[in-house]
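During the reporting period the student researcher (J.K.) took over the structure-prediction task from the postdoctoral fellow and processed the backlog of single-chain submissions. One of the processed entries is reproduced below for the supervisory committee.
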Amino acid sequence: MDPVIERYAQIATPRYTSYPTAPHFQTGFDPETYRGWLGALDPAEPLSLYLHVPFCRQMCWYCGCNMKLVKREGPLKDYVETLLSEIALVRDALPGRLRVAHLHWGGGTPTALAPDDLARVTAALETAFDILPDAERAIESDPRTLTDAMVARLADLGFNRASFGVQEFDPEVQRTINRIQPPEMVAEAVGAFRRHGIDAINFDLIYGLPHQTTEKLLRTIDLAAEMAPDRIALFGYAHVPWVAKNQRMIPEDALPDARARADQAAAAAEAVVAAGYRAIGLDHFALPGDGLARAARAGRLHRNFQGYTDDPAATMIGLGATSIGRAPQGFVQNLAETGAWARAVAAGTLPVAKGRAISLDDALRGAVIERIMCDGRADPDAIGRGFGAAPGWWRAAREQLAPMAADGLVEVGAHGVALTDRGRPLARLAAAAFDAYLDTGAARHSVAL
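J.K. obtained the following structure tokens:
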């Protein structure tokens, strides 16, 4: 293990799926401000939709998402009714029936909903929006509770991409994180989607889990590669029990230390590439013919709350409790508690809990951070010219990057900032040099690697 990488890997750093990052969204944000943002959208520009379903049929100890364990159908039915009402509220705030190029259902487990309820929400979306014929319609699912009837209905509803949280196939690790799903179960779910014509498949894998070793993770990658998903996301486990109380079930003494995490990350990335995938940004991989790989080759890669994407839309409308959306003017996040979210919608109010208008400085720094996260390099002066910034505006960031440059992790010069091959896994730390908010507030983050 490279001792320099090991030292930097232990620094807590945001994941930069937005800038400013979510901890810096402001409470008390006026829903009418968001209504104004929606009303000012350009009808000529396609947008994206994200729907959040914060319910799961089974609890996973590692999960850091906003979710609730559900055993009865009543809460799910109530949630759908409120979601339909929220869609109507958003529709009424828009300047027309806007076009949609990307639609993503996340959670939680969206397939915890009944097929008929998924169909009702889909019909409401298709009424409120013009979902383009070639739009990507993606949904996250849980192989442990997925049925063939659900997959068939998803195909009928036009879904064309499915995501699975594989995480790790080792039985001991699965028991410790309370997610028992043998490889055969996942392979059966993948086969069901492909039989019904949903061929685009994403897998999420995680390193740094309790009782995980490099050997176990490499075996998982071998098994995953045999199923040939189009995309693989390789995330480091973020142990944040102060946020996700279910993570308190994880025995901390079973977690790999910083050196073991870094070894796992490096070996896993090498193995995924050896299996025929192209490295995308910091932690994604895609088969060469996949749209994500094509976007990376063309310099059109973007980053949002779902990770890396080829979606260029400036607007993403979030629907459902805790969902995050973005308009050209800024970010908004819905109320996280489902009861409060439902009450706001019932009162005819857009259920916004937090928001953040984006200043010109935010937009500039966000553009640089996105390019570092997506391309491993950025030219702050060239980007700055588009924002009217003076040459050398990033002097403070240059100084902050000096230790990484001295350690051979980044190159800083006339053409900006570029991560070296050695430093590429530390893209988040290089991006953090441009974060004007990082030292403000008391937000806690996961480690860099």
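The committee noted the following: The longest strand covers residues 130-141.
J.K. will present the remaining backlog at the next meeting.
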